[in-house]
## 1
Amino acid sequence: MATIAVYSLKGGVGKTTLAINLAWASAMRSARRTLLWDLDPQAASTFLLGGETSGRHPAQAIFSRDVAAAKLIRATDVDRLALLPADTSLRQLDHLFHALDKKKRLSKLLEDLAEDFDRILLDCPPGLTETSEQVMRAADLIVVPVAPSPLSQRAFAEVAAHLARRGARVPLMPVHTMVDRRRKLHAEAVALHPDWPVIPMASIVEAVAVRRAPVGSFAPRSAAARAFDALWKAIEQALAGRAR
């Protein structure tokens, strides 16, 4: 089992759209038993995949071990793709991690799920927090969406510097998101890092929120679908290289 975190210090860079489309690619293109774990209290991934945002057990109860994670996992309409939904209780997750003083609680919970899934994707909340520290310890790869703007690029640099200071060995995979090559600023940003994967700004990507479905499920031949597929292949290659 490998864990891929989709994380950004900055919000509004297409993080959740990236997470659900990569989870779809994992399940459908690679035929992996895939879990998308929504860690963001906004529960956007949960909404887009048709999951429940409330229930008998709040999402935070997984981390206090009041309920097993497996009990909250829900099937989705996508074959081989399951969802661990979020809810507003996760707003207090940073405080819970601090109170528990368990630096590898998320890692241990992921180990409990390792027999049931081949790939687990984490849709992470933005910011440098106790939750992000847990993610950085647990992930095998961190995919960082970077919009073509100075603030987004600065946020990525801060994440890379933070990991370097901690001596963390988890690799980062920056991804250009929301790119419109007709705009000079966007074209210059892509040219600055030509080796980074690119996800275009397109109406078909924006339609994900309306259709509540990944691009590959309703527009499989679109340029956006091909971009998500290419990114997933790059992720699988990175994981294979890390395993050797």
## 2
Amino acid sequence: MSTVDVATYNEKLQLTINGFYYGVAFLVILFSFNYYYFFKDNSFLYHAFLLISISFSFIIFDGLLNFLNVDQEKIEFLILLDYVLLSFTSLKFGDSFLLLEKYFPKVKKYTLVLFLIIVLFVTLFFILKVNILYIILNVLTLLLLLVYWLLGVLLFHKNRYTKLFVFSYAISLFSGLDFFVLKNFGVSLFDTTPTNLKIGGFVQIIILSFAVLFREKDLRKYNFIMKNEIRKFSSEIKKRTIEEGSLKVDLDNLSLRERVIFDLIVSSKSNKEMANEVNISVNTVKFHVKNIYLKLDIKNRKEALSIKKDIKH
């Protein structure tokens, strides 16, 4: 195969990869916005914007902005703007997807500080145009991804979607580390190229999309279980409230003297002690006790004591 044929083949292959990547990315972004609209889960929204920022990075590297005659100064500004968008969407997506508010609530403020430092270096590079600042910016951005990847590793066994998150983020993290950082120092672990980055990005999109869907499915299942538990608890509370209300009504049916006798019964007083306390005969006490048992539908003192306990609760 001649050199021209090889070049033509490589060009066609590159165009195929580009078309496939941008097509799939566009569809996944649309689906993410659609799922956000229906499920109101912020993870879908942040996922969409994360994919937009990643795809825009590839658009810049592919030279599409040059093809559209965008001047170099504007391209540099858009690259820096994309760093801010990529960092911010990574932060928000990681917080939301990994449920950091639940598992690591204190970590969020540190990742926010790291994001603000990234914004600071974006501003410094935009003003000073010093190459070392750009290298530091790449390191900080990858450090932010590394933090969320490590948090995902810590939560690896929590559920299946966290496992997919760890695998998908590893692709961006290590390929980005090789291409954007190590190559600046003349080192390369994986010989990463823009084409390899795009293929890795495509794999990440697929894995991360499944992770987001699995997460939504698991959360909906969990919410369904929680709603059933709440319903059962509410039903039990309502039942107890009705029972306590009926007991109160039954006690209200007692006469004033019977209520006094009832209180003495639950105080473990004997018939003789009750007779002495209210200054009536023992036979009169027995008469009142019998009426109390009939009105409350109980048979003995133990059941009377149980009624008193239920009312107190």
## 3
Amino acid sequence: MSLAALPIFVKLAGRPVILIGEGEAAEAKRRLLERAGADVVDEAANASLAIVAIDDPEPIVVRLRGRGILVNTVDRVDLCDFTLPAIVDRDPVLVAIGTGGVSAGLAAALRQRLEAVLPASLGGLARALEAAKPGIRGRWPGLAERRRALGAGLAGPLDPLTDHPGDAVEQWLTDATAATSSLLSFYLPSYDPDDLTLRQARALAQADRVFHRGDVPEAILDRARADAIRIACGGMPLDPGAGLSVYLAMGE
């Protein structure tokens, strides 16, 4: 299935964006543009993007498109070259929810749900990971092993959906240097893979090997990485080996 639109993040700081319109809708777009650092200008200015918030937008949209400008037209998805998503801001982490202009209300409802789920410390976690890049590269020189290590960390001690203290990344890196293997165990309440928690799904997606009891269904095991080693066993392994291992059993 093809994408209806390609989501991108555009840096607008100091760049001109045309805004045409008055009233509440136009002012809401102005506030959003100013928050992004854009230079809000009128139709005569040179710009690559424009937002139109008027009752009869067709003539203006035709003129702007004739100049090669990409246009967003408020409440007229048929006259939009781009749409503006609902935003969850955990600077520098941005989560954008778009419906292609089909339902702004749905996007807003999803944003409200995510606002409640994503902790305030998420931005701090991102900045700490950025600051720790030299140490992470030193601990895991290879790109593949570095990705696996980060995946394991974010599936476990650095879970992005959990509030973390400021030294969480530093502590994780210290612990990872002291130990070369980790094992996460999960007792599953259901045979349905759609009942996996986010943490369980992330762990499976990053695991180097999956230890599992015989009654764990294939549909759940298939959520693991394609190259992950599967090991059927009667109980939790005593020596799981290097890297991230996951042990799965059905809940009792």
